[in-house]
Amino acid sequence: MKKSRGRTGRKRRRRKHLKSFMDGVNCSHKLEYIKLKKWLKERGFEDSNLRPAEFWGTGRGLMTTKALQAGDVIISLPEKCLLTTSTVLSSCLGGHIENWKPPVSPLLALCTFLIAEKHAGEKSPWKPYLDVLPKTYTCPACLEPDVINLLPNPLKKKAQEQKMMIQELFRSSRAFFSSLQPLFAESTGTIFNFSALEWAWCTINTRTIYMKHPHRDCFSLEPDVYALAPYLDLLNHSPNVQVTAGFNEQTRSYEIWTNSQCKKYQEVLICYGPHDNQRLLLEYGFVALDNPHSSVYVSADILLKYFSPLDKQRKAKVSILKDHDFLEENEQSIVKQRNPRPLQDETA
Ligand SMILES: C[S@@+](CC[C@H](N)C(=O)[O-])C[C@H]1O[C@@H](n2cnc3c(N)ncnc32)[C@H](O)[C@@H]1O
């Protein structure tokens, strides 16, 4: 049959070309995903219509093999598949954490567990999950100083703070790491090194879902709101979709429901929250195209410079903006131990 060379043909070819970019390259045949699926099945995860795939634009994510309608469940992950502080406490680290004073934070407990399990290699029951975790991250904390220097000023300061915060976490955790020596043949100084902590911190910062756990005395007062959710954490973010997510007490599973449609073989996207690109870069290491939450950060200095000198209210206006945290502080801020932001608000 003669190929259509007219306008319709060109349109059709263009659409096909565009579609091939939007569709992902299925990678569920790769051994690491086959092992992960088997491991999840043993923990009660029912095979869904999701497949790991590589997408142009968002990287690795999950594609659906069935069209999704608003109201459909995207994924339902049983409690047994989740990695939380309860997992950590029931491991060999549990006794050491319970005896350690001052108590460690839930975040540090999770970081320690990830590093220890990664070190255990073949012996770790979490190996199929650990094997699919990224080896490196693009959060500002992992960027070289000369790259951080290229960022706009307010973001540069926040990136430097994030780097210093992890350095401080490492410094303040060294004694705790040393206390774990009886559990390891190799020196804890080698196992729990700075880059291992940085990797674990970024894993938690970029991949955890929000799940509130009651406070336990063996932990410090920082909120215990994290859970690592294997497979579910392959879902990428879009500011333009809406989902409902949370732990379902009846099914004892963490569930995500879509409020948007998704076509067959397209990437299933969820919303991590109404974050602007600065926040996305800081917390997750990427920026979203056409982000409706985009904002521009302005320092008090810049604002005052461009306020009309005749405006008698300008100081009061700046003060109101400051009170509501709408202004970047210019002075060097004290490095605070900030808790990372879980993947999804309960309300996202
Ligand atoms: C929860 S993980 C999602 C799965 C991840 N892409 C992977 O391969 O493991 C979150 C990370 O995915 C990446 N990501 C999520 N949404 C993205 C998007 N819209 N564009 C680019 N990268 C995105 C970022 O690196 C982010 O830190």
From TrEMBL:
It holds the Pfam family SET. Gene3D superfamilies: set domain protein methyltransferase, domain 1 (3.90.1410.10). Residues 43-273 form the SET domain. One of its GO terms (molecular function) is protein-lysine N-methyltransferase activity. It comes from the Eukaryota. This is SET domain-containing protein 4 isoform X4. It comes from Geospiza fortis.
